[in-house]
Amino acid sequence: MIRVSDLSVSFGSRILFEEVNLSFDAGNRYGLIGANGSGKSTFMKILVGDFEQSSGTVTINPGLRVGVLRQDHYQYDEYTVLETVLMGYPELFEVMRERERMYALPEMTDEEGMRVGELESAFADMDGYSAEYFAAELLEGLGIPVEKHGELMSSMIGGFKLRVLLAQVLFGRPDVLLLDEPTNHLDLDTIRWLENFLLGHKGTMVIISHDRHFLNTVCTHMVDVDYKQISMFSGNYDYFIAASTLAREQLIADNTRNLEKIAELRDFVARFSANKSKAKQATSRQKQIEKIEIQEIRPSSRVSPYIKFTSKQPLGKQVVSLDRVSKSFGDLDVLKSVKLEIGAGEKVAVLGVNGIGKTTLLNVMMGELSPDSGTVTWGKSAQPSYFTQDHHDTIPKDTTVYEWLRSFDEEADQQTLRSILGRMLFSKDEVHKSTEVLSGGETARLMIAKMLLLQGNVLVLDEPTNHLDLESIDALSKALAEFTGTVIFVSHARQLVTDVATRIVELTPHGLVDFVGSYDEYLEKRETLVQA
């Protein structure tokens, strides 16, 4: 299917990866993983043809149809949502357009009649009669209702445009699917739908994702970008972690044994090389030394932050109470008479489809928005700390990482601030980095650093895993699960919700569903609960 031969990429003196040789075979689903900045996106761009490698070749079998998830928000603005999806199969779309044009003619010549026959044959061969039904099915699966299918793309907001573009690439049923972060902007229900769809797709896939559960569910192989190499492993993400950790530990152990053996042999050579009776033995030992190989252990680009949340003071029984809270924006009723009480030690996942009001609920709870009616009451001992979804707007661009963090506690000493920033992977001079040039992942880690400094006993987080790599997500998930205070969070990361939540609050068009228990337990009973 796809052959990668002697592929190398470098930027000046910096080597991203070198002499990569891989084969992506028919029917397999490959998860492309690695730390932020390791080169995943560059490698994907090379496969797509959007980036030229320094050396080496990428060969795709001729005749294969390749589908690429593009994220150009404006390219299809003049087309309807349904037309945009149909364009995912360009050959069929052209036949459809020409067929429509021919049938619109008031009269046909014999030649035009013959052309219609050819078009009908091609249309049938490409399943044209079921095309619009399949396109609509994809859109509905991705959370775009039928009434939106005839609207122009220009009327769709960013997150929903990306869903249409995802439907477009799936519609073509390509032999090879290249998907960069397909779960971005999807809610948990839609991600589950996508997982099932991809499991039923027979083509080859290469997928970049930071969603551990998605990788475990969908992928048959992992392609890891690390150590300036790209390596392939059979199995899902959890199997890869276990296998790669074991392989690295084995390599370190082998090198340690070999170094000890070399030291022992060198000692013998040093003591007996001048001794005539043992000169042959010393020469033999020297030859043994020359045969022993010490494998190169390259530094990993993977670094995990160290996150451990602590509280300045204990938390009382009552944390926060919402009594008949309502909030509207114009004619849109987002929150309708919401009643909710959250107690000490609870880990509450707030779920719901995109646009249902999850962020509005947190903003009202935190006082960022005023409710139109109803009250929000915090317990006297509650000290909430907030990780906002739009944290780029929270951090000003005219300061440094260190100064921004210091602004939340002017009395904190330099060692404390540097220690927290170091745990969040801002080392040495990086603490003086301008906030204007921070990446999405760095900004998210800086927000977590603020929460570590403030030591609140209630952590409120809105989509905290956006922009974080897998190592950071795992560290955050572990820290939230171990935190002794209360956690209230919105997330589309299935693994985070599964690992952390002890209570599920789902916002639905019919009202709020409140369930005490894990996410897996909730899914088992959800249909009954939502209908009730």
What's the shape? Answer: flat
Low-confidence stretches: none
The overall pLDDT average reads 92
Q: What structural class should be given to the helix and strand makeup?
A: alpha/beta
Radius of gyration over alpha carbons? 29 Å
Strand count: 18
Strand content: 15-25%
Number of helices: 18
Strand order of the largest sheet: 5-6-7-3-8-9
- Spatial separation of the terminal alpha carbons: 50 Å
Helix content: 40-55%
Largest sheet: 6 strands, mixed
Pfam family, one: ABC_tran_Xtn
Domain ABC transporter: 2-252, 320-532
InterPro entries: AAA+_ATPase, ABC_tran_Xtn, ABC_transporter-like_ATP-bd, ABCF_ATPase, P-loop_NTPase
GO molecular function, one term: ATP hydrolysis activity
What does this structure look like?
Residues 2-252, 320-532 form the ABC transporter domain. This is ABC transporter ATP-binding protein YbiT. One of its GO terms (molecular function) is ATP hydrolysis activity. Pfam families: ABC_tran, ABC_tran_Xtn. Keywords: ATP-binding, Nucleotide-binding, Repeat. This protein is α/β, with parallel strands linked by helices and 532 residues long. Helices cover 40% and strands 22% of the residues. The protein has 18 helices and 18 strands. The strands form 4 sheets. It has a 6-stranded mixed β-sheet with strand order 5-6-7-3-8-9, sandwiched between helices. A 6-stranded mixed β-sheet has the order 14-15-16-12-17-18, with helices on both faces. Strands 2-1-4 form a 3-stranded antiparallel β-sheet, with no helix packed on it. α7 links the parallel β6 (176-180) and β7 (204-208). α3 packs antiparallel against α4 (110-125), α9 (237-272) runs antiparallel to α10 (279-291) and α16 packs parallel to α17 (494-500). The relative contact order is 0.10. The model has no long low-confidence stretch (mean pLDDT 92).
